[in-house]
Each structure stands twice: as structure tokens, then as C-alpha cells.
Amino acid sequence: MEYSKEVVALLKKNKVDVMHNVTVLLRDGRKFSGVIMQRGAGSDDILVVKLDNGYNIGLNVENITKIDDNGKVKDKNVGNKKDTKHETKVVRHKKSLVHIIGVGGTIASKVDYQTGAVYPLVSEDELLSAFPELSAIATIKSSQLFSLFSEDMTPDIWIDIAEEINRTIKNEKPNGIVVTHGTDTMHYTSAALSFMLQGLPCPIILTGAQRSSDRGSSDSKINLLSSVLAAKYKFGEVAVCMHASMNDGVCHVHRGTRVRKMHTSRRDAFKTVNGRPLLEVDWRKGKIIELSGVTKPKPYGNLKLDTKINSNVAMQYFYPGLRQKDISRLSEYDGVVLMGTGLGHVSTNQFNNKKSISLIKEIKELIDSNIPVVMTSQTIFGRINLNVYSSGRMLKEAGVIGHLCDFTPETAYVKLMWVLGHTNKMDKVKEMMETNIVGEISERSEVTKRLII
Amino acid sequence: MTDKFKCGLEIHQRLDTHKLFCSCSSNENRDVGLRIHRRQYAVKSELGETDIAARYEEMKENEYVYDIYDNCCLVETDGEPPHDVNPEAVEIVIGIAKMLHAKPIDEAYVMRKTVIDGSNTSGFQRTMVIATDGYVETSKGRVRIESICLEEESAGIVKRDIGRAEYRLDRLGIPLVEITTAPDIIDPDHAVETAGKIGRMLRMTKVLRGIGTIRQDVNVSIPKGARVEIKGFQDIREMKKVILNEIERQKRYNEIIEELKKRFNGKIEYPFEAYDITNIFENTKSKLFSNVKKGWKVMALKMPNFEGIFGSELLSGYRYGTELSDYAKPAGVNGIIHSDENIEKYHLEEDIIDQLNITLDFPYVMVVAPEDVCLNALHRVYERSLLSSVPAETRKVSSLTTRYFRPLPGSARMYPETDIPPVKIHNLWDKVNPPEDYDDRLSKLEKMLGKELASKIVVHPKYYLFEKFGMSDPKTVAWVITDLTRSLSRSNVIVSDELLEQLFKAYSDGLLVRAAFEDVLKYAVENNVDVRTAVEQLNIKRIRDKELEKIVRELKNIKDIMRKYRLQVDPKDVQEILKNEKMKK
Questions:
Q1: Same domain for B210 and B148?
Q2: Can you give the pTM of this predicted structure?
Q3: Distance between CA B196 and CA B214 in Å, rounded?
């Protein structure tokens, strides 16, 4: 952020600039010596000074009478974005090669301790100097594809990531790949990669951090270590590896089509929905336990990159008060995923209450104009069943897809894009949507003591 | 080295409001039996060159365990970002700043101060400067206040073992004011006076009371000695003695260094030579060496010219050997054995002692631990033994002396907390009224209550009750708040503020007399009833007017009346009636 006109004028008048050592004199007689910082999140008429004791303070320009320049700060001390290179002796184990692809997020980033600004770790050297322990468990190669906030991801970017993974596997034949990603939409990306990269010869592990890497308590190191360990494990799936609990203990590896971010901030925010995690990784012992059946890896030649998608798909949450026009409006899309209530319901007004409405006609109109409508549930957990209540039966009769499916709404959304990239024939879409392709649907709901494992 | 005694204080006081970055209570609470296990790493740029494998191992071994209390939420566990700064805490600190004549910072930024001992689940402590450039007047001149900060309390240590530390999270996040004085304090008495004065001033504001709620650190530079930061004073009364002992320790330490220089003909210099003497102890039954069977090593450092030095006292019971031992401990040993000690006290077999004496025929320091710990510890002993002057360091109070704690903090690693927006202090500054001046309040109270009672109530935690109810009968109200509640609490009758309010109200309404207070409060607490009910059930409602006149006519004599109706009659009422009767006659 830039300073306001007032602050810039004051700096000019005193012939000083950002990153200069200065002594600031105030109207009330106080004197502060420190360094002029870049403008942070403060207000317009405030100059930010980093005092010699490390504290940042904000001073109102109106209270400043004079600023004495004590010279520009040497790059070494302040505002140095490049950390001095840490000598790292890389122990090259011949047996396992893990390639880390950075696409963003706080996990593979470093902080400028002066300004608090965060920068991505660009090179292999930087990554290894931030996480030197990684080279103790595998030979690490890394590349930074781009650096994006999780929420800035788009379907087109999923394709870029899938292509990069495909290239890396073809060129390097690694034992596994780790993708460092922002956490907010990581489960969309993992689902998309699952459909786009089939017949995998090695695991593709997505990981991120819930606490930024600048702090001693960050979960990044354990997540990354565990992900590299998981990437060495013999299976062929796209998965997400994150903390299993609030402890810095074991991590869980979740199937890419089953996982969902279930908490805004806890370390163990990622959970497998309707199933068990695939693996438990004990990074201390270097031990991996299978918690549910994993897909065996295929020969390297079997990998099939299939990025054909149609991203003109909408997701619509149902809520009491949703209007008919809200559904009709969806006709501009090529496909619709509904997040219904309970077993998969929207209002159908069976009792003809004057104050209620039915959305059946509008949904039927969408389907009749060849726009597939897929039902999922906002309960997140559990299976869609359109047979139990008459509203469900009406939806099923209207041609709504998803009966007996247990995919998450996000996975259904990604899958519908991918399916529509391959066909627009309604019966084919229905068949593909309701058939398990990469572990996104299971026929049995396992009995478990607790809802979330 | 300095030639003048210079001393500054750093005072930390907990504030009486909810936690700084969430709405959890600041009262230490119940352990809910939930624990989390975490690890922390030194952030990259703090590290020197270390072996990768060693770091990986170190990371596996260091664990922090946090006990969760019912006044903790996800914020304390570092499982949720901090909420906004508690505005009441900011206001209290502004009040304190005004009292100390300080000037505000226009816009305050929360900073992250890196901590690496696990005492904060996030890996840093959050802190912000609120005001600067204040002062406090003392009998020996003005002591300047450099800065007034608002920060979060750290977690409390429960247990520390090698590679593992356990903390309680109830304390974490309690707002603290940190007051830092300039080094304007001129002698130990002055330090005590200044700390006392600031402490009293703080108690004029909304601060927590009781053990651990206020902490004073002392920064002291000693002539011909070094600057040390002394932490962990439990009581300011021990401050003077501790400072005097520290001066003595440094003086004696200097003398020892001089003696060593003489023995070494100038610079203290000798090679690092460690001896692995594990095999000598393989068959001993001495408990101290029992871990040798598990693969621990016994190693000794050859320290030429040190004979008699280890045993030299710096203070009574505190030897040069103690200095080396304290400094070696962070390496992971429990202590050291040195050649000035009587080895027999370790219950070693005679032949082992003989063998030891033959092998080590020079002054030595010996340790028992895993090999890398041994070497590390001996290196620390070696490093300290080479010093040519008393080292500057952070020390901790331990029974009126100080012990090595850790190196002085370097240029604090601080960087901005990006999760919390800046706080505009200027906008709040004018809205906060400065707290009453201590001396003003005291002199006002002395006029009202006399010296003794005034000194008891002036910064009493329940002073607000005196403000509210003390106007009509200040002495009685002050006596109840200070003496009566205290004597009741000694017999385990804990009177709530609510009950006191009821009592003062009933008293001013004329429902009961002063002599009945003790019985009424006791009854109310024990039977969990309000004051009015207690008065009714005890049947000790105040007797006055016609009813009292009747009693006066019957018994005539004030002595007899008071003997019979002590708990119900105010002697002043009787005197009044008797006076009126006389006049009528």
C-alpha cells in the first residue's frame, strides 16, 4: 500500500524516504528514532516508524515537526526480501524422489519480518532451506507453478495444475508429487485433479497450512513432512494430507474426492466425508497405516490426462424463501448442482399452503431444456435418497440426478463440469454422474461410532 | 563494564478484564482434562549452521503439552485467529498512562515478539506500545517512564523435562500492562521505592490482585560488573536484598576471575580436553550413575589451574561450581560434579574412587548424560570458565540470590501481527478519565478515617464499595470492608460483595446496628440468605424510638440496657433518650 499525499509530502519536505533511519520530532517534544516503514493497514495521515526496540508505532503527520535523516537502511538489516542463503547439504537418497509443486498458500511462503509481508518460496533451494528436514526423507525437487490465494483458483487453473503434474510424471517418474495449495478451496482442486488425472502411477498429495509458516507453531512443517512421506507410499490417487487432530501428532491422508474443509481455522479442519481417511502418517516414526483401501498405482504409461470440462455449471443452495425465479434464472447454465435439505429436498408445497411455493415446475423446465440438475445435501454427511418423501419422489420423477449418491456438493459440482466436458446427452450425464469414477461415490455407508473420523 | 550503579524496572501487571484477544475470562480456572501436544521450531533465520539429520531428530524430541482450562477457547490453542483487541484493556492502560504523565502513540500496532520456549502456543507473544515518555516522582528524583505497553500474558509452566515442557493455558492471553522505566534509579532502596510507588498507583486502576498478578523485572548495571536482567521477584520486599546479593556476587566473581588470570599469567586459556571415563563406572551401584547401563556416558573436562576455585564461595552456599552448573544445565544435564567436591557423597565404591583419582589427576568437571548432552554441557562449562569478566545475562531470583536463566534478549525479533487492525489511541485518549491520584485519595481518606484505617482501604480491591456507601458513616463502612471481612474470612466465612452491599443498605436504612454485623454476615453466608432475612431470622432488628424509650424507662441504666440489647441497640440512641428525659425533668 502507498502512503497518502500528506505523508508523501512530509517525507519529501524532510528529504527522507521509506527504509531510512530517522529521528522524528513531535510537537509535544517527544523524539523517536527508528526506521520509516512501508505503509501497513493504518489510516491515511499516519506515518509508520519501527522503533529501535522493534515496535512499530503510528504517528499522525500533523504532530510531526521535523524528521532527521540518519541514512538509508542497509539491505542486510531491514526490508530484505531475500533471506541470506542457508547452506544446505542435501542428502540424496537414490530410492525416493518427491517433486513438490507450489501453487500458493501460506505453507510454502516466508515472511519479511520487518513488514510482515508474505512471499512465496520460489526455488528448490529456498524450499529446502526453509524445510531442510525434507531432504532427510526423500530427494526433493520442486517447482513454483504460480502463487495464488485459494479463493482465486478457477477451473482453468485446475487444468494448468493437472497438466503440470502430467508433465512432471512423464519427465521425472517421481515416487510421488506434493502440491502445496491454499487451504480454502483445496478440496475443489483435489476433486478436479482426481477426475482429470486417471490411472495414476504415484500419489498426488495436496497439502497446506492452517497457521502461516512465519510462526514457530505453524503446522506447515509437519504437514509437508507427512505429505512427502505419503507421497513415497505406493498408491495411485489424488489425496489431501493435513493434521488429524489439534495435536502436532499424526496426519491423515484423505481421498481427493471425499475430503472437505470443515473448520475455518483449526489445524484438523480437513475431514473425510462419508468414509475413513485413506492413511494415517506418523511423521515421527516415518510410519504409515492404511485406514481404508487405497487404489494401487498403475504403470507409468497408463496415466491419462483428461482435462475436458465444461465450467458453465452453477451451484444453488436451497433455503426457506428461495423463489421460483431463483431457479428459472439458472437456465443460462449448462448444468446445475442443488444443495438441498436433508435427504435431498426443495420445496414442493404438497399441502398447497397459500404462503408456500413449489419449485418442481421450474426444475422440470431446466431438465426439459437439457440442463441436468444434480441433487446433493447441505447436511454434507449422508446419502441422497429421493424415495422417502413425496417431495423427493417428485424431484426424481422430474429427472433430478443423484438418487442414492453420497458425494459432497463440491465434488458433485466438479464432477458435473467434467462429465459435461464429455457429453451433453441427458441420459449419459445421469449415468456418469451416478456411477463411481474415482472414489467419489460409495455404495455402502459404513457404520462408524462417530460421524467424523 | 560500567562505573556507576544504574537500574531500571520493568513492571508487568495483569488487568482486571477479560482476555486480550478473545472473550474468555481472565480468572484462572478449572482444568477441563483436555490436552494438546504441539511442536515448535525456531524460525529459519534464527538458526545457525546445523546438521539436517540432527535437526530432524531435535524436532522429533521437543514436545510441548498444553493443559486446557475452562477459560480457554480456540484462540488460546492457536486454533483460531485472535479477535479484536479488548477495548476495556486499552482504556485501562490509557488510564495508567495518564497517571504516569505519558503521551499517547497516535496509532498502535500489535506486534509479534518471537518466543521459542513454547510459553505461547502461537510461537510469539503479542504486544503493542500505547504511550511513551512519562515519569513518576520519587523521594530521590524523577524516574522517567520510557514506554507503556499492552501485551498478552504467556502460558504458565507446569513441568519442564528434557525435550518436553508442560504449560497451562488458563493464564495465556490475560491482558498485561508493561511499564518500562529509564535507568534513572540510583540505589537498591530507590528501586524498592519506585516499584512500590508504581505498584500502588496501579492498584488505583482496574487491575487483578493476588500472587502472580504483578511481576517486577530489574535491569541493573553494577560498577566494575555487568548489566544483568533479573526476573522473577515474588515480592518487592526482597528486591533490595537480591540487588545487594547480586552486587556481592559480581564482586566475588570478579575476584575469582582475577585470581584465575594470575594463575594463567594473563589470559585464561587452555585447550578443550574431554575424557570419556564411562568404563570406570560400569559396575557401580551408585544411583547417580545408574543410567550408564542404558548407554549414558560419563565425561570429564580437564580444567588446569582450577584447583580450589570450584569450591570458592561467591555467596554463602553459592560457589563458583554453582555458576558452572547452572550454565551447563540448559544442555540437558541435571548438574555437574567437580574436583573440589568430596566424591564419597555419591556412594561410590572404594575401588572406583581410587580408579577415578588415578585417571583424573587434575582439576575437572564431570557430567553424566547421553554422549551429545555430555559434550554440549562440558562445552558450556568450558565457555564460561574462559570469561575474562562477569557476563551480562538474564538471571532469575532464587531464595534472595540470582541464578543463570538465559542470555540477554537480542534485538527483539518483532514483526507486525497482520490478523489485527491498528488501534487508534488518540481517539480513545481523551475519552478516558485519569484515575484518582494516590496521594490525593490517601490524604482525603486520612482526614475522614485516620491514618491506620485510611492506609488499609486506600487501594483495597473493594474500595468501590466505600465510594458507594461510605459517605454517611465512613469509619464503619471502611472497618467492615477491611477488618471485619478479613477476620470473618479467617474463620472461613467469605462475604460476597453483593452481601456487603445489602449490609450497607440495611445499615443506612436503620435496620440493624453495627454490633450485629458479624452475626448477621455469618448467618447470611452460612444459611445462604440475604441480609434482611438474616436480621429477621436472628430476630435482631434494631430497636429505636418508642420501643427503645420503653426499655430505657424500664432499665434506666445504659450499662444494663447494652448488656441486654447489645445486638439491637445503638448506644447513641440510648444516650439521646436519656438526655431528652433529663431535659424534660
A1: yes
A2: 0.83
A3: 11
